[in-house]
Amino acid sequence: MALTPTTILTGFLGAGKTTLLNRILREDHGLRIAVIENEFGQENIDNEILVQDTGEQIVEMNNGCVCCTVRGDLIEALTTLARKRDAGELHFDRVVIETTGLANPGPVAQTFFVDEEVNAHYMLDAVVTVVDARHAMQQLDEHEEAQRQVGFADTMLLSKTDLVNPEELDALETRLKRINPRAPIGRSDFGVVPIAEVLDIKGFNLNDKLELDPDFLAAEEHAHEHHHDHDHEHGEHCNHPSHQHAQHDHHHSHHTDDIAAFVFKSERAFDPERLDNFLGSLVQVFGPKMLRYKGVLLMHGTDRKVVFQGVHQMMGSDLGPKWGETEARGSKMVFIGKNLPKDVFIRGLEQCLV
To answer: Reduced to 3 states, what is the DSSP secondary structure of residue 14?
Structure first.
């Protein structure tokens, strides 16, 4: 049986996840979606609880969606839904999991790789993060969870953009892209967002697409060229190597996030064995601090692309399509993590080139 695509919906308290979910649960989109509200045992903080307490854990909506409030184990909720569907008691073809506003999406994503029964029924499609444009700057400053939710995202949806001016929005987008240059940024004001921007994004697909924000790439190149001129400007107030690529910010931003991204690019091919060993050791040492990473690689000895990606310590790779006749060959990798020593990664990867 085909695996059910599953979306993890995350975002800080009050960002507008429930507003978005309510639309999904009530709108006439013709999809049968099972929504799991994963509350981890705390009180539900949102005012508008999706399903008023009817004593029944699973409620069917009139548009064919199913809502399931879970205070306990996510694995149990997913397997219960799958069993009920197999028995013909429920019908759904997609799942959306809403995490609590304080949750780190990492463990939720990992559930899809570690639990065999979940693995047999579901396929993780993407992590969608709703970002409150009005409060995000402060939340990112004060809460690492907010940074993690951004770092984990395959796509970001900005809510409450009507409450900020264009300059503030611009500064926020720049900051979000520095934390996560691989997630496109859309809008979700009042929960209004095309369903195609939430579902079937294929963010966890091992495909050979690695779209990165072009401004971020340009800033990375720039930082690389001027690396030595800039070092003295950082001195005491910045001890994270991962921030040294943020110089394009004209020094007016005082927001240094522990979670940030960097890119490795090379036109030379990798030695498969050396790269394999090095990536293995990186994941062992830095896995807990590595949120998401992905690469499309040029490997010595094969005319096909190699695609790899991971979440924390879990890494997978796959042979992609052949390199095109006219295509520029080379490797491109992005790492998003917490205080990762960029120079250790870059130098080590360079040692793995043929």
So the answer is: coil
CATH 3.30.1220.10 boundaries in the chain: 259-352
d(CA 122, CA 66): 16
**Residue 49: pLDDT band by 50, 70, 90 thresholds?**
very low
The pLDDT, as a whole number, for residue 234 is 40
Strand order in the sheet with 259-266: 259-266, 331-338, 290-297, 304-311, 314-322
At 297-350, the pLDDT tens digits run: 999 999 999 999 999 999 999 999 999 999 999 999 999 999 999 999 999 999
CA 233, 237, 240 angle in degrees (round to 5)? 90
Question: What integer pLDDT is reported at residue 253 of this predicted model?
Answer: 53
Q: Which residues contact 324 (CB under 8 A, 6 or more apart)?
A: none
3-state SS class at 281: helix
Q: At what angle do helices 214-225 and 166-179 cross, to 10 degrees?
A: 70
> Residue by residue, what is the 3-state secondary structure of 67-132?
EEEECCCHHHHHHHHHHHHHCCCCCCCEEEEECCCCCCHHHHHHHHHHCHHHHHHEEEEEEEEEEE
Q: What CATH class is the domain 4-197?
A: alpha beta
| Superfamily of 259-352 according to CATH | CobW-like, C-terminal domain (3.30.1220.10)
The pairing of strands 66-70 and 58-60 is: antiparallel
Backbone angles phi, psi at 265, to 5 degrees: -135, 145
CB of 230 closer than 8 Å to CB of 223: yes
